[in-house]
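Hi, here's the filled form for the chain we discussed.

Project: internal
Contact: R.S.
Residues: 116
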Amino acid sequence: MMEPKNYEFNTDATLAMLLGNGFIPLGNHLKMTRSLWKYKDGSTYVFAYIAIDMDRDGALEIDVRCDNGEMYIPFYNPEQRHNNQVYEEVVRKYNNILDDLVRKNILKHVKEKENG
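And the returned structure, exactly as it came back:
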C-alpha cells in the first residue's frame, strides 16, 4: 500500500520562490491549499493545507482534511486504510504535489530513520 512521504522546508527557499509557486501570506505563515480527491461533480472532498511558519525558521505544517474540516482519518491512521481507493489517490496526489515542491527547491525529503 502506498504511504505518504515525509518532507521538511528547504531553508534556502526564498519568499519570492514561495509566492511564485502559489503560497499566500497569512500572518506569519505562507499557506497553500491543494485538492487531493474530488467527487464526480468536481467538488473537492479531501484537501492538503500546507503552511510554512516563517517565525519558526520555516517549520512545515501539513493537514489533510475533508471538505467538512475534519481530518481525513485514513491518511493519519493505518488501521483505517484497508482497501481504500480514495486513500490511494489522496496519497498519490499528496506525494506528487509535495515532490513538485521538492523539485522547485521549496521542500526537502526527510529520510526514514532505520531501526537498529
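Let me know if anything looks off before we file it.
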